[in-house]
Amino acid sequence: MTAIDALKRNPSAALLAVQLLGLLLYPFMEGSPRGRALLGMFGLVVLGAALWVVRRSPWLTWVGSLLALPVVILSLAAVVMPRPELVVWAAALEAVFYFYATGSLIAYMWQDWVATTDELFAAGATFTLLAWAFAYVFVVCQALLPGSFGAGELESARTWMDLLFLSFAVLSGVGLSDIVPQVPMAQAIVMLEAFCGVMYIALVISRLVSMTAIARREGS
Fold first, then answer.
1. CA-based angle 119:120:124, to the nearest 5?
2. How many Å is the maximal CA-CA distance in the chain?
3. What values do phi and psi take at 115, rounded to 5?
4. How confident is the model over 134-176, as pLDDT tens digits?
5. If you average pLDDT over residues 3-14, what whole number do you get?
6. At what angle do helices 84-109 and 61-80 cross, to 10 degrees?
């Protein structure tokens, strides 16, 4: 079986790989206007990969397409004309899309009682999608409420990598981030993400682990 065939059988693995690649590439993209433009284009690649995976979900896939279309238009407009209002609207719509994609993948993993290889990759991809979604919510919060997130004595706006790092730290519960919410709304969003992270592990991951254990026991 070729690599292309493997990706067709396990599209969630491709989505997870693209997202993890983004974590390594983003630090090199934020330092210059050209890099930020590349960051926006790479975001569209992640968006396309997520939309491709969502097609396997039992949810209405046309909703994902309708959500993705304005995101693509606004993201391209923000690359050509990097105006703050365009960036905020694009981030808001991307947050909505990634929340939808998260729900779609959870529905995909819950549609039967067999834990396939693609569903195991989907568990990782869903976690990263949820982290991306909250990071975009942080972007909107910071734009509407300047100073929402602080880091020690620094009062400047946090970068995309800062907010994504904070999102992963909160969602995973590791608490490693030195960036803290400074206003009540930011604190509320962070608490909501922490709750979602705990519930995701408790309800989704534990179910997949149980199904995998049952399948191995029945197989033996």
1. 105
2. 60
3. -90, 95
4. 999 999 999 999 989 987 555 568 888 899 999 999 998 887 6
5. 76
6. 150
The model's pTM is: 0.85
Tokens representing 25?
């590439």
What letter does residue 2 receive in the DSSP assignment? -
Do residues 86 and 77 touch, judged by C-beta distance below 8 A?
Answer: yes
CA distances from 88 to 50, 75, 137 (A): 21, 10, 10
What whole-number distance in Å separates Cα of residue 58 and Cα of residue 56? Answer: 7
Q: Which residues contact 94 (CB under 8 A, 6 or more apart)?
A: 43, 47, 71, 75, 132, 133, 136
Q: What is the pLDDT of residues 69-114, one digit of tens each?
A: 887 787 777 767 767 788 888 889 889 988 988 888 888 888 777 7
What is the tens place of the pLDDT at every residue in 45-71? 787 777 777 766 665 666 777 777 887
Q: Which two structure tokens, joined as six digits, stand for 71?
A: 């995101």
